[in-house]
User: What shape does this take?
Amino acid sequence: MNTTGDTPDAGAARATTPGDGGAGADTGAPARDRRGEWPLYEVFLRGRRGLNHVHVGSLRAADDTMALRHARDLYTRRNEGVSIWVVRSDAIAASSPDERDPFFAPSADKVYRHPTFYAIPDDVPHL
Amino acid sequence: MAVDNAYEALTEDSRDLGDRWAYGTGFQDPLSGVDATLPTGADLPAAARHVLGLGDDALVMAHRLSEWCTHAPELEEEVALANIALDLLGQARLLLARAAQLDPGLRPAGVAGHVPDEDALAFFRSAEEYRNVRLVEVPHGDFGHLVARLLVFSTWRLGVVDRLTGSRDPVVAAVAAKAVPEIAYHRDHAAGWTLRLGDGTDESHRRMARGLAEVWPLVGELFTTADAERPAIADGVGVDPATTRAEFEDVLRRVRGQATLGPPGADLRRDGDAPATAWGRTGRHTAALRDLLAEMQSVARAHPEGRW
Assistant: This one.
């Protein structure tokens, strides 16, 4: 998305079209990747009635502070959140699709690992 | 499922609807439970003029910000600017509607009866009838200009609107209470960019300084009051913007300092500091407002009987 540094003539009159010269946002900010883009962040929100943070999407930002701001602007517009976490995508270690079977298949038949054999009291929430 | 009030369909109180949404929506009508009776003993036409000016500021600024859609340097920033524009549009809607309640004579003549007051005021007034300050109407420059204008506008407006929460008009006070956290965020957003650009590269510093220098001649007007609205201040319905100037200057001094933009006023033209005329508040505008309104009003005027 970033427009890189084409600077209009310094003496040019103020453009009536916004964005002409919009490269002013190119601060040469820290940590741009090879393509000149800001690093990617993953966004986690805790909803008003949610108990834990849930991944809702990603965004680009120059640093953590800006990432939080952008997350607020992009992902809480409809009153969704009461708490935001952002983390740089390259800081996340993820399981690989290639390892899917060794990772997850062994748990598929261990039904005794679910507490389905207990009677759950009515007055205990969030079990 | 028919609901007259859009908020009713979305509030958490509508328990039968609560499960329709993945997140609790919890929207609130900012005027719910607010006593809408007109303030007694106040000069209502003056109050209406005061409220109209603040509404027009928000409306025109919202339009200028929305012009950045598809032009912002980053997608994320574009949404942020659109959010700010929508906040201001919401404030404008409530303030224009209240202005028309305070003085029904403000509503332009000849507008179809089903058009709400706020729409009639927004779409069927000429530039000379607008009461916004000129700061919000001047054409765009670059991103530095945008940030400078937003910083100046939201710093000023926050001071005024914060005091307006104590207005004797309960509706105006309620709108102000809703607007304060919105504008505080706008100011924060603009201040954040001022620091990044001012304390960034040589080029970003140059553009940020230029943006501030460009908007500064329009600052003096922000603290003026038109004669027609003065009684509203005496009545306790409105706020004298001049009382917020020290606070405004203090905030700008600190932001400028942190952004390495030098001591206040170092690169600013003198006329921003001179005693100013109430230009926009008395209907005297730059030609840019006429162009802006021609675009903003074109659809409503092409279809004056339209229902939206």
Notes: The longest helix of chain B spans residues 170-198. DSSP finds ten helices and no strands in chain B. Chain B touches chain A through 40 residues (CB under 8 Å). The radius of gyration of chain B is 20 Å.
